[in-house]
Amino acid sequence: MLKLNLDHVLMDVEWEKYQPRVSELHHQLLSKTGKGNDYLGWLDWPYEYDKQEFERIKKAAIKIREQAQVLLVCGIGGSYLGSKAAVEMINGHFKQDSLELIFVGNTFSSTEIVRVLDYIQDKEVAINVISKSGSTTETAIAFRIFRQFVEEKYGIEESINRIYVTTDKERGLLRPLVKERGYESFIIPDDIGGRFSVITAVGLLPIAAAGINIDKMMKGFVDGRNEFSKENITENPAYQYALMRRLLQEQGKDVELFVTYESHLSFISEWLKQLDGESEGKEGKGLFPASVTNSTDLHSMGQFVQEGTKLLFETVITTKNPLADMKFPVDATNADGMSYLENKSLHWVNQQAMLGTLEAHTVEGNVPNILIELEDNSAYTFGYMVYFFFMALAMTAYYLDVNPFDQPGVEVYKKNMFKRLGKE
Amino acid sequence: MLKLNLDHVLMDVEWEKYQPRVSELHHQLLSKTGKGNDYLGWLDWPYEYDKQEFERIKKAAIKIREQAQVLLVCGIGGSYLGSKAAVEMINGHFKQDSLELIFVGNTFSSTEIVRVLDYIQDKEVAINVISKSGSTTETAIAFRIFRQFVEEKYGIEESINRIYVTTDKERGLLRPLVKERGYESFIIPDDIGGRFSVITAVGLLPIAAAGINIDKMMKGFVDGRNEFSKENITENPAYQYALMRRLLQEQGKDVELFVTYESHLSFISEWLKQLDGESEGKEGKGLFPASVTNSTDLHSMGQFVQEGTKLLFETVITTKNPLADMKFPVDATNADGMSYLENKSLHWVNQQAMLGTLEAHTVEGNVPNILIELEDNSAYTFGYMVYFFFMALAMTAYYLDVNPFDQPGVEVYKKNMFKRLGKE
Domain for residue B421, yes or no? Predict the structure, then answer.
């Protein structure tokens, strides 16, 4: 579950004043009559998803865990950010598991590709390639290289058994390959954009392969969808967060700094950078999304946040119950002067750091802080949180009067790049 | 080596106009008469460093590599950012090495600490604890926990053989422990602040332990120090970069977005966030430092950079010769439509992505871009680059009229935190 705390935003909001506008946008959204309404498939997905495919995802995940030591998740943008954020949040770093996920197909870095090839040389490997068009350049390059690796290692027949394709139902370059070879395949729906696709097979197969219970995650999607679709802004934390972002930007806070207090939550911020930045960063508008992981980054970015240019507010994502905890041990010599913390829970210490920072940044630093407290780092809470951010994003972008579901600006560099690469 | 390219900053600069001010600040810096002048030890360090200690660092590194599978580098802020940036840049990710570096002591995350403890349970371990005062809370907590682990695993006597302490020459809580136990120790100089400390034992011991040639890195420090200390701005790329940052901020570009095109370079951006953000983020001034790794993040942040709020400029750090490269393989079926890239170097493809993006962001997006091209990812080039950024930072902060070498704002959250933790 999830709690929103707006006690530290350094302003008072009369929610009622904004209710008419929020109601109008809410109805546009739910009746699918607003901007970008042909990409609203995510809205009812938790009710309408393909149950048979969902069961196939779970079976494929079990098969992958049996056959492989490394799953290469080959995708870029929305085709990896959500699943990586989920797996890191729910499993944590340094988890000792029989299957390792390596996210490839998201870079042209020759160094990275060569090194991953070296690394998997003697390991049992499976691939999940994820691309709607099949022509996303980074992903297509990596898929050719790693597919050839698997074909050479296992032969064509067994390679078919180890390649899982998540793509468009009919179109694109991967579908014909699926039909020709007989790869097991999963569908990227037409009406769900990349940055919302963690709720589909795009996210669910890698997440399930990581040993995570996707039934519980789906329950989180359903409950989050229900909870954060209330019209009344005073009853809907997602809409409150949405509005608060706009009010803070209207005050000149052009940067939203996402803050986590555990490194294994930091990829939530990366996922949010796409969800928010790509949705509202258009027509010269939108909040610039940035991130830190505290208390680590208080020792690099803390000075700026405390006393630098006043251009930002913070959105702090914390966890009430961490994945693991321990008591600080006793040392009778107290040579390090740390004995005042003996037998204290480390998570409690982390929470005091968060609270002390909150006070420093808001009271002394005059930097508004929004708090989002997660109950735990479970699959259910991840799913629930996803819909908090989905509903908030839709409302906040509609409030900004932009289409949250297109991304016209990402084609510009591709056009230039293709010209340089000699693509016809 | 390093080249600065200012062809895409979307303005013409008459360097001569700024020479008098730059000359004045240059003399303040080199004669050590400017703000924060008691923290200018980094300036002449490449000439004056302790040669005997340098040899001891190399010997200790060899010993660590012989005795351990995991080196726990226990430090926060400047005590880990520089060495992590160096090791990732020079060794790359997924390097198969007998020694793994794990950076601890930079978080209160109970999950992270418990997981690392689990992970090292059956491995041979050494520790390098790095803290000037010995009382930095994150580091002191981790050091007690991991020191006890090593003492229990090996016994007190052998633990002494596996713990390396980098701390103040005389003061602080770690020095008495060194004297009592006889740990091998290295010195953090009084006049070199944390964010400049990568050039000292702070950075050099972990870097050398990672198998990197620190003689070559020191040569890079020397050559960079010489190259980027020229008074004449037209002959000094570091001062040009310094001035450009100020001129861009004066135009309302309050965010500097550091861009790399390989994930193993992305920690350079993290190191720069401390170097720049902590140095100039004071008195309500300074550029907000953020970062992306392209082309990966073009699929999340690309839309915002291209068409979002016009608050940023980009500083792009690229590499001419990567750590590894390969040719894109042939597939006679061309089912993926990628055969137009066959036999092309992947690094060349990555460079075309960079050039296409540069054009898209500057020409169509009207976002100024500064290019910093590194010759390669060697230890020498890292060292050379460090002084480019050091000299640029000193000049840019003096130009902004702030003291680049203090960080008064980082004490505020600590004060609040200590109160909550019950520290006397």
Answer: no
CA distance B143 to chain A (A): 9
Same domain, A18 and A107: no
On whether residue A267 sits in a domain, the answer given is: yes
Q: Is residue A180 part of a domain?
A: yes
Domain closes at, from A212, A247, A271: A212
Interface confidence, given as ipTM, is: 0.98
- The structural domain count of chain B equals 2
- Cis preceding linkage at B295, omega within 30: yes
Q: Are residues B147 and B238 in the same domain?
A: no
Instruction: Render pLDDT for A72-107 as a digit per residue (tens, 0 to 9).
Output: 999 999 999 999 999 999 999 999 999 999 999 999
Is the pTM of the predicted complex or chain greater than 0.80? yes
The shortest CB-CB distance from A356 to any of B81, B110, B420 is to B420
Residue A302 and residue B111: Cβ atoms within 8 Å?
A: no
Confidence tier at B424 by pLDDT (50, 70, 90):
confident
**In A, which residues are within 8 Å of B284 by CB distance?**
307-310
Q: Which residues in chain A are contacts of B345 at CB distance < 8 A?
A: 110
What is the span of the domain harbouring residue A226? 2-34+219-400
Contacts of B165 (CB under 8 A, 6+ apart): B128, B129, B174, B177, B178, B183, B184, B185, B186
Does a structural domain hold residue A405?
A: no
**Which residues, in sequence order, are bridge partners of residue A184?**
A164
Q: Give me the total of CB pairs closer than 8 Å, taking one residue from chain A and one from chain B.
A: 420
Contact between chains at B108 and A270 (C-beta distance less than 8 A): no
Q: Say whether B278 is catalytic.
A: yes
Do B205 and B247 fall into the same domain?
no
- Chain B residue numbers touching A327 (CB-CB < 8 A): none
B245 and B367 share a domain?
Answer: yes
Same domain, B58 and B160: yes
Q: Tell me, yes or no, if A278 is annotated catalytic.
A: yes
Q: What are the φ and ψ backbone dihedral angles of A244, each rounded to 5 degrees? A: -60, -40
Is B27 considered catalytic here? no
d(CA B46, CA B25): 21
pLDDT for the residue B142: 98
Residues of A in contact with B301 (CB under 8 A): 273-274, 277-278, 289
Q: Is residue A401 packed enough to be buried (19+ CB in 10 Å), middle (13-18) or exposed (0-12)?
A: exposed
Number of H-type helices and E-type strands within chain A: 16, 10
Looking at the structure, do residues B156 and B19 belong to the same domain, yes or no?
A: no
Chain B residue whose CA is closest to A181 = B335
